[in-house]
Amino acid sequence: MRKFNINVNGTMYEVDVEEVGGDAPVRPSVQAAKPAPKAATPKKQTPKAAVVEGQVDIKSPMPGSIFKINVSENETVEAGQVLLILEAMKMENEIVAPQAGTVSKIMVNEGVSVNTGDQLVIIE
Fold first, then answer.
1. Which of 16, 80, 99, 103 could cysteine-pair with 29, CB 3.0–4.6 Å?
2. Domain 56-123, CATH class in plain words
């Protein structure tokens, strides 16, 4: 018999495998071992800016990474103007201004990863 530890979806199993000669099938004996403690995964803390009345908070519609930022803070933008490019699933997605205004805060940098709902830009 040979013993192996096998991890299946985070649960460790101790497996005894009997060695046999010839072409006979291997008959494993499986016993559940104590589950390995899960390591705490650090959560990415994205700074959030408070949005006041009259400001528009533009959030990420999907997870991805910021490919290019086309505007700067204090820049005047028109409705429909491309603010930044979000790369997701090998596609470049244009994030546009929903209304005319002034960019008051850019919450991301090029190359950073974002999740759905993360703040990208605030327009007033």
1. 16
2. mainly beta
